[in-house]
Structures are given as C-alpha cells and as structure tokens.
Amino acid sequence: MTDEFFMQQAMREARKAFDDGEVPIGAVVVANNQVIGRGYNQVEKLNDCTAHAEMIALTAAFNYLGSKYLMDATLFVTLEPCLMCAGALYWSKIGRIVYAAADEKNSYRRSTGGHNPFHPKTKLETGPCTEESLQLIKTFFLQRRNGSM
Fold first, then answer.
1. Is 52 annotated among the ligand-binding residues?
2. Is the domain defined by 3-142 classed in CATH 3.40.140.10?
C-alpha cells in the first residue's frame, strides 16, 4: 500500500463531506497498512465546530485500538490541519502526518507563527492529491457563493 492509495481513501471521505454540504476535507488513520479510522468534516451536520475530519478519524482510531496513543500510525488528510486538530494530534503522539494541500488561511502555521505544534517524534509530510484536494475545495466554495448548494 502506498501514500497515494491512502490519500485516495482520504479523498473519498472528502467527497462524502462535499456531498453532505460540508467543507470537503477527509482523513484516514492507518496502522500496519490498514485503515483504522476514517472521518470527514461534519461541522454543520452535528452543529459542532470541533467535528473536523481529523478529530473524527482520530476518535475512530482510538476506539479501534483501545488506546489514546497512535505512535505507530499515520494520518492522511486532504488539507493541512488547523490549530485545534494539531493539538489533538500532538496529544495522540501520532507517528506521521501526511497532508495533500497546504491551507494558507486556517492552518496551524498561521496560528503558531510557523512553529511545529506536533509531538517531537511526529513526522510531517506533504503528500499526493494536492491538486485534487484543492480543486474539490475550490468547487465547494464556488458553488456555495453561487447559491447552488
């Protein structure tokens, strides 16, 4: 299994969010080449500003493993995490984070002045599907501005 394969799984989650009228961000948590947690934005659906894709995927992974730590897991997410999600990822001690597209507007970098908010052992990488992720987000906001959502 490759990063491309797992990022496509995250993109599938993002498309679910899009279809539900949510900002189209998706995430999967992977351990031992197996998806152990999935999530997509459900902020509107749940009336919960914390219902980000990463948070939902992390909770599913914690429940799957029966553990609050994910040292041997990787999060694949279609957009760079925000500060809230970065905090949750820090506490999870996740081993690796791969994101498809940078978020210049709401990423953790904007809130931290570029400082790394993740656990010191967490590896952070950009991954595949950058253009696909950005296009889905642009389409979502364009449709929303045009009133077709």
1. yes
2. yes
What are residue 38's DSSP bridge partners? 28
Q: How many CB atoms lie within 10 A of CB 99?
A: 26
Catalytic site residue 54?
yes
Q: Do the annotations mark residue 49 as ligand-binding?
A: no
Q: Which residue is catalytic, options 13, 54, 131, 132?
A: 54
Q: HSE-up of 136 (CA within 13 Å, CB side)?
A: 26
Domain boundaries, the chain: 3-142
All residues at 6 or more sequence positions from 149 whose CB lies less than 8 Å from its CB, including other chains: 21, 140, 143
Tens digits of residue pLDDT in 72-116: 999 999 999 999 999 999 999 999 999 999 998 888 888 887 788
